[in-house]
Amino acid sequence: MADTPSSGNALVLTSSQLTNVGGRQSNQDALASARQDDLACFVVSDGVGGQEGGEIASNIVVKAVLDRFQQEATFSPRALQAYIDFAVIKLVRRQSEEPRLKDMSATVAALLIDRKNRSVLWAHMGDTRVYHFRGGKVHRVTKDHSLVQQCVDAGHCQPEQLRTHPQRSILCAAVGVAGDGIAEVTQLPEPVQAGDSFLICTDGFWEWIDESEMESAAAAADSAKAWLTGMHAIVEKNGGASKTPRDDCTAFTIYLSTDSSTATLT
After folding, report:
1. In the Enzyme Commission scheme, what number(s) does this protein have (predicted)?
2. How far is Cα 7 from Cα 3, in angstroms, rounded to an integer?
3. How many angstroms separate the CA atoms of 240 and 229, rounded?
4. Residue 118 to residue 189: CA distance in whole angstroms
5. Residue 245: which pLDDT band, with cuts at 50, 70 and 90?
6. Contacts (Cβ under 8 Å, ≥6 apart) of 143
7. Among 1, 46, 76, which residue's Cα sits nearest to residue 252?
8. Contact 167, 152 (CB under 8 A)
9. What is the pTM for the complete model shown?
């Protein structure tokens, strides 16, 4: 993990990241970020499709989104949709080129930040989440594209079952899966302010830490790195007590402030 500061004439962005292999021989999660002037793009992906296919899929998705961002760094819902669409094209093309990878797919969550205009957009497919915190509390969070989420929405399951239901890994949308599932992209920029923070994470992270624990870790932290370290300790503790195999665990924390030397999580 490492804090990465970014300075400018607007909000200062500081981030930290981690990715750990779970019970598999290889890590099927991927994450990366890129900056262009006052814009920043963060991407997290969780691969599906066997040991090799999942790892390939997540890396294709992350690289494609950031490649397109770096080619055309624009802050708009249309641009963010184009970044995801480009990842879909790249993954489907690889599926057709290598039949052994025809069943691979991946979730995606992408966060696009305009530091100068203090705005954010995000997109996701699957159950990799984007959390927005304000005042140390969960302000907004993406809704999973999963079978269990649909059951929760229909009143057949309780929200807490998103973390425990036996069918929680069945997705209704993912990059590389044919069907009606498409990326969900915010259509209006969300205003951000100094003190706001974000968490982007795969299910191997959020399954083992609830929102109240995320908020408690934020209250005890003074940086993006400290916040992520605190949450990861909770994930390890909660996950270590489980008898089920652990999934790969991947997350970004992002913090916005006006002065990197005095940035704190509030």
Report:
1. 3.1.3.16
2. 13
3. 16
4. 9
5. low
6. 149, 184
7. 1
8. no
9. 0.91
C-alpha Rg value of the chain to the nearest Å: 17
Tokens of 40: 């920043």
State pLDDT tens for residues 114-172: 999 999 999 999 999 999 999 999 999 999 988 888 887 788 888 877 887 777 778 88
Confidence (pLDDT) at 160: 78
- By mean pLDDT, which of 72-76, 146-150, 171-175 is the weakest? 146-150
Q: Which domains does the chain have, with CATH numbers?
A: 4-204+251-256 (3.60.40.10)
Q: What is the crossing angle of helices 50-71 and 77-97, to 10°?
A: 140
pLDDT class of 265 with cuts at 50, 70, 90: very low
Q: Which two tokens stand for residue 226?
A: 């400290």
DSSP 189: P
**Tokens 């913090």 belong to residue:** 255
Please give the structure tokens belonging to residue 219. 């209250």
Q: Are 50 and 103 in contact (CB under 8 A)?
A: yes
Q: How far apart are CA 216 and CA 37, in angstroms?
A: 33
Which residue, among 192, 180, 203, has the nearest Cα to 251 in the 3D structure? Answer: 203
Residue 166 identity (one-letter amino acid)? P
Mapped onto helix, strand or coil, the DSSP state of residue 108 is: strand
